[in-house]
Automatic annotation (TrEMBL):
Listed transmembrane segments: 12-29, 36-53, 95-114
Name by which UniProt lists this protein: DUF2784 domain-containing protein
Keyword field contains Membrane: yes
Pfam family, one: DUF2784
Organism name: Spongiactinospora gelatinilytica
Sorted UniProt keywords: Membrane, Transmembrane, Transmembrane helix
InterPro entries for the chain: DUF2784
Length: 136
């Protein structure tokens, strides 16, 4: 039971991770500090697509499912198992990847625009003057 719970919980986290990769940059519009987390997630997504490296979440889900006596995701990965052919036809994989890339790019452009507007409203940053300082 515990191993199956690990597998199921990992599947949920994996879905949330992919959703955050697609639209997390828009969250940074309201919570600017989250842009760094989104940059890391987007970088991981790009690296995993470019290199084909297995996601640690896939490995963890396989471990939980296999130890629970269930079939794992191997040889396919999470996206192949749960998303391609279920949410969109497999032949649209490239199109979906471009759509996600466009969402990420759009969210970052919007984040940059909003950051500049916020900075302009705050005005120029005052730097401490060197008056009154003596050199030894």
């Amino acid at each position: 039971m515990g191993y199956r719970l690990v597998g199921d919980a990992t599947m949920v986290v994996h879905f949330l991770f992919l959703a955050y990769m697609a639209v997390g940059g828009f969250l940074a519009w309201r919570l600017p500090r989250t842009i760094w987390a989104h940059a890391a997630v987007a970088a991981w997504g790009l690296i995993s697509i470019a290199t084909g490296v297995e996601c640690p979440l896939t490995a963890l889900e396989n471990w939980g499912r296999n130890n629970a006596g269930l079939a794992g995701l191997a040889p396919s990965g999470f996206i192949d198992h749960y998303i391609e052919g279920m949410i969109y036809p497999e032949e649209y994989t490239t199109v979906v990847r471009w759509i996600v890339a466009a969402l990420v790019l759009t969210s970052w452009i919007g984040y940059g625009t909003l950051s500049r507007r916020r900075a302009a409203r705050r005005g120029p940053v005052e730097r401490p003057s060197s008056e009154g300082l003596t050199s030894a």
